[in-house]
Amino acid sequence: MAKGRKIYEGKAKILYEGPEPGTLIQYFKDDATAFNNEKRAVLDGKGVLNNRISEFIMTQLNNISLPTHFLKRLNMREQLIKEVEIIPLEVICRNVAAGSIAKRLGIEEGAALPRSIIEFCYKKDELGDPLVSEEHITAFNWATSQEIDDIIAMTLRINDFLTGLFAGVGIKLVDFKVEYGRLYEGEMVRTVLADEISPDSCRLWDMTTGEKLDKDRFRRDLGGVTDAYAEVARRLGIIKDTAGAEILSFNQE
Ligand code: UDP
């Protein structure tokens, strides 16, 4: 499928104009960044795995009538998506304390939270995506109260669904980050899940060994980053094995 003009290039993905009005092509790069771009690397095959894992999850979510921007995967690195206006929030949902909440509130990493907690960060790289409250979001018009209600309801549904999906393959969903967009359909505007869901945006721990199967392997220099992502894909039944041959062949495209 012919790609149009490049519209936006982010840290891990590029967006191009799509073949039809109202569509975009989302391209998954191998680039990895952490700590607000201070740490960078190219991880061979990461984009291919995230494309496949995000396709799998978005398809399952569409199947349970959770609206997403995902239309279809085009090839190993690209997917066709609906064009949306991104709501400038990173929506984090946590089940177990890890990362910034553990540090910020002095909770031991790995401690179960009393209930699932949703946090909002304002999407602004220059500011390091600061944590904000619903007061900030409505006062500065980043989203309406109705949109916040929809976002919370959808995020909790995604959390329940993904917690079960991953538990079924021996993985604990510690936390994840999602983004939403406004989909304009004539006079109507709907809030839909956008961006990606992949080991770049989730914390995934093996249920028996506690091994990290996510981007923390990169953040904390644990090595074996793409092997861990391939393990997630293998357990979900997306790829057959972690032997690497398949990933390398993905990379040819
Ligand atoms: N996360 C993300 N992008 C970001 C910040 C966080 O995908 O810019 C994800 C992260 O991978 C984790 C969850 O959101 O699954 C919670 O991250 P946290 O706030 O603990 O931040 P971190 O420890 O990554 O700084």
Summarize the structure in words.
- This protein is an alpha+beta fold and 253 residues long.
- The protein has two domains: 6-83 and 225-247, Phosphorylase Kinase, domain 1; 85-206, 2-Layer Sandwich (D-amino Acid Aminotransferase, Chain A, domain 1), CATH 3.30.470.20.
- The protein is 30% helix and 32% strand.
- The chain is built from seven helices and 14 strands.
- Strands 8, 9, 10, 11, 12, 13 and 14 form a seven-stranded antiparallel beta sheet that branches. The chain has a five-stranded antiparallel beta sheet with strand order 1-2-3-7-6, with helices on one face.
- Strand 12 and strand 13 form a beta hairpin.
- Helix 1 runs parallel beside helix 6.
- The chain is globular and about 50 Å long.
- The relative contact order is 0.16.
- Uridine-5'-diphosphate (UDP) binds at residues 90, 92, 98-101, 129, 175-177, 201-203, 215.
Helices and strands, with pairings:
Layout: E1 6-9, E2 13-17, E3 23-28, E4 31-34, E5 39-42, H1 46-63, E6 70-73, E7 78-82, E8 85-86, E9 89-96, H2 99-105, E10 112-122, E11 131-132, H3 134-139, H4 145-167, E12 171-185, E13 188-194, E14 202-206, H5 216-219, H6 225-235, H7 245-251
Antiparallel strand pairs: 1-2, 2-3, 3-7, 4-5, 6-7, 8-12, 9-10, 9-12, 10-11, 12-13, 12-14
Helix pairs in contact: 1-6
Question: How many helical stretches?
Answer: 7
- Let me know the largest β-sheet: 7 strands, antiparallel
CATH uppermost class of the largest domain: Alpha Beta
> Domains counted in the coordinates: how many?
2
Helix content: 25-40%
Number of strands: 14
| CATH domain fold name of the largest domain | D-amino Acid Aminotransferase, Chain A, domain 1
Mean pLDDT: 95
Superfamily at the CATH H level of the largest domain?
Answer: ATP-grasp fold, B domain
Ligand list:
uridine-5'-diphosphate
**Amount of beta strand:** 25-35%
Q: Which spans have pLDDT < 50 for at least 5 consecutive residues?
A: none
> Radius of gyration in whole Å, from Cα?
18 Å
Q: Which series of helices and strands comes N to C? A: EEEEEHEEEEHEEHHEEEHHH
- Give the N-terminus to C-terminus distance in angstroms: 14 Å
Q: Could you say which structural class the secondary elements and strand pairing correspond to? A: alpha+beta
Shape: globular
CATH architectural name of the largest domain: 2-Layer Sandwich
